[in-house]
Each structure stands twice: as C-alpha cells, then as structure tokens.
From TrEMBL:
This is Uncharacterized protein.
Length: 255
C-alpha cells in the first residue's frame, strides 16, 4: 500500500499547507491511497521537491536498510498507475471529465519532476531499456574496436629486435646517455631534454640488451637519479671511471 513509505498527518494537525498524508482526525489506513492522492492534487507543482524530500527523509529515518531507489520506485509506481487509469478512462463520458483532465495534467507535472531526478531509469519501458542497453553495448563495442586498432597501430611501429651491447659494457652506454643530457647548442639550449630520468632508463631497457640479456630498470636506477644535481647518497652512484671511455665533443666547423 505504501504506509511505510510516507509520513502520515498527525492527529489534530490543522495546518493548511501540510505535506503529510491523511486528515487531522482519525481515518482508516485502508483508504491510504485516497488520502495520498487527495494530498497530491492539493499540492502546488512548485512544492514537488519539498514533498519528495519530506517523505524520502521520513522513509529513510524509519527504515535503516532503506534506499532512495526503493522510495523513488514506489512513488513512481503509485503516480504511474493512477495516471494510466485516468488516461485510459473515457473522460468525455465521465461526469467528472473536467476534474479528470485537471488531475491528468497535475500528475504529468509530477512525473516530469520525477523524471528530472530519476537516477534509475524508472520511467523506461521494457522495450526502451532493451534499446538503451543495446545502444550502450554497441557503443562499448565500437570503443573496443577503436582501442584494438590503436593497439595494432602501436605494435606495428614497435620492434621485437634489440641492440645488443658487448658483455660488461652497458655502463659505457649509460655514460653516453648521461653526457648527451649535458650537451648544449650555440644558443645555450639543451640538445635533448626529458622531464624525468625514467625515459632514459626505459629506452635502454626496451631497446638494448647486454650480452643478449635484459638490462633491468632496477639496475639502471642507480645511475639515473631523479635530481641529477642532488643524487641521493647510498642510492645513486656515478658511472665508474673505467666505463667513461668516450667523450662527445662538437665537430670543427668548416670555414
């Protein structure tokens, strides 16, 4: 019926603007729906949010395991059923056709409000739900197709081949990469720049091997401190002198 969902009017509550269900005297709870719609039709459309929040708060306070979704769907069901009954009624054959038409417009106004706050698609028909789910599924499939294309394009540009470095020589390459970062052009701008040292480590790990064995990131971290100017003692070390065997010097320009 809905008694547990909606706040009932207190006895001797003579307020003319009450949002609660029932009258101020004793009334039969069996006639709840009658009093419920009497209250709905007495409320101005501007008070729909106030009505909704008042009864939602009551429902949640009285039901510790209650959820707004349950309350919303109960309210929607009551309004939808009454509206459907009125719409299917031959209002022009009814003695109360003017009142019926007014009630239809009032309930439509309420359903518009409910639709605006519906987070659970309660107003969708079964067919509409199927169409929406199919559309969403198609959208996800299209996204997967696009991601698959991107992955294939990425892999097409990648290579499984790696440049092999002679045994016990990977630190020579590390030293050269460190020296590359120190090179500057005539305008004093850096020749190469990376925001983090991780780029250099990943490049060595991805594209080089030493004696056909992986050069691990953890091994490289010792030589690529996050802050080159302030390496952490104990965690970072300079390349040993016997591995710093090459220098990069500018070529002499032809006059």
């Amino acid at each position: 019926m809905g008694l547990e969902y909606f706040r009932l009017r207190d006895r001797f509550d003579f307020s003319k603007n009450t949002l609660d269900i029932g009258n101020y005297l004793q009334w039969s709870r069996k006639s709840f729906l009658k009093h419920f719609f009497l209250r709905i039709f007495a409320i101005d459309a501007s008070r729909w949010p106030e009505f909704y929040n008042r009864h939602l708060t009551y429902y949640l306070d009285k039901n510790t395991d209650g959820k707004e979704e349950f309350f919303f769907k109960k309210l929607w069901s009551l309004i939808e059923t009454r509206l459907k009954t009125l719409v299917e009624k031959d209002i022009y054959e009814s003695k109360n056709h003017v009142r019926d038409q007014q009630e239809i417009e009032h309930l439509k106004s309420f359903t518009e409000f409910l639709t605006s706050i519906d987070k659970w698609n309660s107003n969708e028909t079964e067919e509409a739900i199927k169409v929406r789910l199919l559309t969403e599924n198609q959208g996800l499939q299209n996204q997967l197709i696009e991601r698959d294309k991107e992955i294939k394009l990425f892999r097409s540009k990648e290579t499984t081949d790696k440049i092999n470095i002679h045994k016990d020589s990977y630190l020579i390459l590390v030293d050269l990469f460190l020296k590359l970062q120190e090179l500057k052009l005539d305008d004093d701008k850096e020749l190469v720049f990376a925001r983090t040292q991780a780029v250099w480590m990943k490049m060595i790990n991805n594209y080089f091997t030493e004696d056909h064995k992986e050069i691990k990131i953890e091994t490289l971290k010792r030589y690529f401190p996050a802050d080159k100017n302030k390496p952490t003692m104990g965690k970072h070390s300079p390349v040993p002198a016997d591995k710093r065997i090459f220098n990069i010097v500018p070529a002499k320009r032809r006059s």
